[in-house]
Every structure is written in structure tokens, then in C-alpha cells.
């Protein structure tokens, strides 16, 4: 019987050239490129799981994936180098370790951190194209902070999730939302035990709506009080979003 | 007789899609795009001068240009908006003011600041492609600092200039070279009363050669001592270079 070992990969990517993390019929998912790199190296297909899907255009500093490969085939450093030699330059394996017994990139995850970048200035900076959401009108920082206070903690976030046709538990705990305001750049960092589908983008879109004065902060309260009855219905674009860290 | 006014424009760009600042036969110079935007707005060609040429792939946070337009045609804010409506999104006019009498973007400049970014890690980060020079081997910070000490001040920098077939004075004063080292990112900031053709890239390439251990720091001294006799002959790639500021 063939022995396998499970690798844990830390992967960074620029989301722009790809159709999101998940395998796609067009084979341009980041997962497709990863699987192809393994298949080229091993001469046979592999099953590869990511910590979570990221949409097309969303970036990652440290997505995590696991994969089973024949035991002892290569040293861990060799795996990193070999994978990077087969991957497009916009996807890089930053680190490769041997996973502990029973490790699963998705199911073992106990928390995630995402960053969302907003360029808040009448003119979008050329070096920010594809890397931030351009909001030309002023955003009120106090309104952001007020919305943040309501969102942090354990809530049913059904109103802040896009439907993807799967019934799932919609309660999550947001540990913190850190808000940093520079001259033009507004950075939101979200840490939670997990996020629903498009939740970070819907949270960001909703907070920005309040900070634009188009909704009162009470609206956030209503969305939380009656989960899923009304949807936030405002989703910040993918290019401002970065998967920063997965905790295990 | 028609009256004109001189506009001073502050322009940011991502250098990647263009053939450098200067007008080109392929019309893909940033200057070409700027001139085209004016021609479309005014219905006739303009003469437009930049503070200095940047090579293909070099970025700008604040290139400066001047242009003469019919007096009082538009308010300054309208110029900014109209130009940005006609320019590719990778070029943005950030600011438009009325230039003082006799102002010339190139000849009135008394100083410039450039930044050069080096990603010093075995793996180039996907979000750094086209935005930094990837140097995979270790660079010694002390050697960088020693080279810096030799370069700052007034010197004949002929050994650190690419020939472009024009005889020019090659003495310049470097006010400072600030070196910041993060975990992977090494940032060099150069301020001088002016730079020769490709000088920042040749200074960076030379300092990196010393920091790689491929040349002793004395080599910098020799290049300075016998200007132009020997060329530094090592030019850091354009994508790490950013024009940060022009002083008048």
C-alpha cells in the first residue's frame, strides 16, 4: 500500500488574472493552477483543499491549502521550489510544511483575518487600480466606528451573506474590526472565527453606506436583529479584499 | 493676439502599460497620452513639457508637467476632471495649478526625490510584480550603508550615467539616501539637485552589487574618483523605481 503525507501550503496571489480560488470549468481558478502544478510534478492528479474560497479579483497574502502526496517524494523546500517553477508568477507558494495528523485546510481552521482597502479620494491613484475600492465621496470615520461597535461580537450574520444555495449555520463571532485612516487610504481589518459567503465585502459595503450618510447606523442594528429577513444588499467590490491569515 | 496661461500639472502613473514618459513613434509615451487628452479637449495640439523623462516601467507619484492653454478656457478643477476623463486610468492628473511667470517643468526644477523598492527574499511576492526589483540572495545592510556614505554629497557622477549622446555637466549633489529595511522590503530614497540619465537605477544596481558581496565598497570610491573612465555597468530594473517629488 502506498504511503502518503499531507502537505500544508501557504499561498499568496494577485487575484486579478484568475477566476477566484475555486476550480472552474475554464480552469483558471487558483485551485486549478495549483492542481495542475502538482499533476505536472507527480504525473498524476491530486486532490487539493483550500481554507476558503476567494472570489475573482480577491487577493491573498496567506491562503492555506492541503494536499496528499506520495510519502518522502521531495524535501519540503524542494516542493516549494518545484511548485513555484510550475505556477504562474501571480501565484506563489510561500511556505510548505508537513501537516499534523488529521489536518484539513478548511475544517481545521479556527479563525481568519481579512483586510479591506478603500481609496477615499476624488481621484483613484493609478497604482491602486485592482488593489482597492475607489470611493470618491467623503466617508465619515465616526459613522464607521459606530457601525463597527454594533458588528463586533457574536451575531447571526445572515443579513450579511450572499446566498449560495447551501443551508448553513449563520452565527459567527467577529473578534475585532480594526479601522485605520490615512490621508487617502482607509484600511479595515476583520478577524473572526469564520466568515459567511461574501460577508467581509457585505460588511464593508454596509459600513461604507452608513459612512456615506445614505443609511443611519440603526440600519446595521436592524439587519442584525432580524437575520436574513432583509439583506444588506450592498457588496464592496472584490479588488479591495485580501485574505491575510488563517488560524488553526 | 490670443492670450495663453501656463498650467502646472502633477501627474501620477503606473509605468507598466506605457513606453516611458517621453513621446514615442508608437504614441504610447505618457507624454503622448497627455498631449492627446489636451488635443481632444482643445481641438488642437499643445506643447507639453515634463520635469524629466522616466523610462518604460518606471512609476510616478508626482511627475510635473507644464503646458500653455488658451487663457481662462476652464477653471483649474475642470481641467483636472476633463483631463482625467480623457486619459487612461493608469495616468491621473492629481493636481492642476496656474504656473507662475516663467515657470518651466524641467528647467525650473531645483531638486527631485526618487524611491527604489527591492523585494529581498527568495520568493517574489505576487503583489510586488512590476513594483519592485526581486533580489533573491541576501543583501548586506551594512554594505549598503557604507556605499551610501560614499555617494552622498557633491560628486561627478559620470560613472553612474548611461550615455544618451548629449554632452552635459555630470556633477550633481545628492542630499540624502535614506535606506529602510523591512522584513522583505528594502526601500531606498534618493534626493538630489538633479539626476543623470538612469543614475538612480545605476546607483541602486551598484549599491546592490556591493551589498551582494560581488564588489568591495572601494569600487564605489574608484567610480567616483575617475568619473566616466569606468561605468558602474549595473543597472537596477525600471519597475522598482518611483518618481516621488519634484522641487521648484
Write the layout of secondary structure elements.
The structure is a homodimer of 248-residue chains.
Chain A: E1 4-13, H1 30-42, E2 48-50, E3 59-70, H2 76-86, E4 91-98, E5 111-120, E6 133-135, H3 141-151, E7 153-156, E8 171-181, E9 185-192, H4 199-211, H5 218-225, E10 241-247
Parallel strand pairs in A: 3-10, 5-6
Antiparallel strand pairs in A: 1-3, 1-4, 2-3, 5-9, 5-10, 7-8, 8-9
Helix pairs in contact in A: 1-2, 3-4
CATH class of the largest domain in chain A: Alpha Beta
Strand content of chain A: 25-35%
> CATH superfamily membership of the largest domain in chain A, which one?
Pseudouridine synthase I, catalytic domain, C-terminal subdomain
Using the CA coordinates, give the radius of gyration of chain A: 19 Å
Assembly category: homodimer
Main sheet properties of chain A:
10 strands, mixed
CATH architecture of the largest domain in chain A: 2-Layer Sandwich
**How many strand elements of chain A?**
10
Tally of discrete structural domains of chain A: 2
Terminal residue distance of chain A = 30 Å
Averaging pLDDT over every residue of chain A, what do you get?
96
Class by helix and strand content of chain A? alpha+beta
Helix and strand pattern of chain A = EHEEHEEEHEEEHHE
The largest interface is: A-B, 20 and 20 residues
- Helical stretch count of chain A? 5
Describe the structure.
The structure is a homodimer of 248-residue chains. In chain A, strands 1, 2, 3, 4, 5, 6, 7, 8, 9 and 10 form a 10-stranded mixed sheet that branches. Chain A folds into 2 domains: 95 residues, 2-Layer Sandwich (Alpha-Beta Plaits); 137 residues, 2-Layer Sandwich (Alpha-Beta Plaits), CATH 3.30.70. Chain A contains 5 helices and 10 strands, in the order βαββαβββαβββααβ. The first copy, chain A, has 248 residues and is an alpha+beta fold. In chain A, helix 3 packs across helix 4. At the A-B interface, strand 4 of A face strand 4 of B.
Amino acid at each position: 500500500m502506498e504511503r502518503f503525507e499531507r502537505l500544508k501550503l501557504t499561498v499568496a496571489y494577485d487575484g486579478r488574472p484568475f477566476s477566484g480560488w475555486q476550480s472552474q470549468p475554464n480552469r483558471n481558478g487558483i485551485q486549478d493552477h495549483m492542481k495542475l502544478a502538482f499533476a505536472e510534478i507527480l504525473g498524476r492528479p491530486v486532490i487539493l483543499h483550500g481554507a476558503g474560497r476567494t472570489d475573482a479579483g480577491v487577493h491573498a497574502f496567506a491562503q492555506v491549502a492541503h494536499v496528499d502526496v506520495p510519502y518522502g517524494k521531495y524535501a519540503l523546500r524542494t516542493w516549494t521550489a518545484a511548485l513555484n517553477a510550475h505556477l504562474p508568477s501571480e501565484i506563489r507558494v510561500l511556505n510548505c510544511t508537513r501537516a499534523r495528523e488529521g489536518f484539513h485546510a478548511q475544517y481545521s481552521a479556527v479563525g481568519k483575518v481579512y483586510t479591506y482597502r478603500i481609496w477615499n479620494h476624488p481621484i483613484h491613484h493609478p497604482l491602486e487600480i485592482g488593489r482597492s475600492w475607489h470611493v470618491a465621496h467623503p466617508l465619515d470615520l465616526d459613522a464607521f466606528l459606530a457601525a463597527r461597535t454594533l458588528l463586533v461580537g457574536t451575531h447571526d450574520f445572515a443579513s450579511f451573506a450572499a446566498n449560495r444555495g447551501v443551508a448553513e449555520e449563520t452565527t459567527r463571532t467577529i473578534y475585532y474590526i480594526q479601522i485605520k485612516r490615512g490621508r487617502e487610504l482607509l484600511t479595515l481589518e476583520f478577524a473572526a472565527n469564520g466568515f459567511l459567503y461574501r460577508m467581509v465585502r457585505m460588511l464593508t459595503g454596509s459600513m461604507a453606506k452608513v459612512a456615506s450618510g445614505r443609511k443611519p447606523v440603526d440600519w446595521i442594528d436592524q439587519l442584525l436583529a432580524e437575520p436574513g429577513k432583509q439583506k444588506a444588499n450592498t457588496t464592496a467590490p472584490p479588488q479591495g479584499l485580501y485574505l491575510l491569515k488563517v488560524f488553526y
